[in-house]
Amino acid sequence: MSTDKLHISTMRSQLGRARGLGSGKAGTVEHWKIERLTAIGLIPLSIWFVVSMLRLLGAPQFIVVLWVSEPWNTVLLLALVALTFHHMQLGLQVVIDDYVHGRFTHFAATLVNKGAAILLGLFAAVAILKMAFLGPAVAAAVAHALSAQ
Questions:
Q1: Pair 117, 38: CB distance under 8 Å
Q2: Where are the bilayer-spanning segments (predicted)?
């Protein structure tokens, strides 16, 4: 009789440890949907980016800056960066939820994951916007330097 109670309490303890952790926690369906939507959005953006980079292969830097400064390209590059880093953060969060145990360690890993995704995404967005807004000035400076020769 005492072994049955021990068995039941052990099962409850295991169930208690599993609640709120890992891939079985609430909100996983929404997380799964968002991860799939970002993946679907990344397909055409990635194809566009690869084709564009192949067309710019061997071009001087100022031509690439002028290409980035075109509004359509700026918007698509910003969308690519946003979706890429959000998708990366979602995927790493699944790994953290499944393999990082302990409240503090899980919290710290989640914080680093989200912080790194936001910080790297902001760095990339600032670089794109800098090229977008300074593109015409760079083109004018290069044209002036070429005409002076």
A1: no
A2: 45-68, 75-96, 116-143
Amino acid at 79: A
Q: Which CATH number fits domain 26-148: 3.30.720, 3.40.50, 1.20.1300, 1.10.760?
A: 1.20.1300
Query: What single-letter DSSP state applies at residue 10?
Result: H
What are the tens digits of pLDDT across the range 6-50? 555 455 555 555 555 555 555 678 889 999 999 999 999 999 999
CA-to-CA distance for 111 and 114, rounded, in angstroms? 5
Output the average pLDDT for the chain: 87
Predicted local distance difference test score (pLDDT) of residue 131: 93
Contacts of 125 (CB under 8 A, 6+ apart): 78, 81, 82
d(CA 48, CA 52): 6
Q: What's the Cα-to-Cα distance from 39 to each of 36, 50, 87, 112, rounded to whole Å?
A: 5, 16, 7, 22
Place of tokens 């109670």: 5
- The whole-number average pLDDT for the span 138-143 is 80
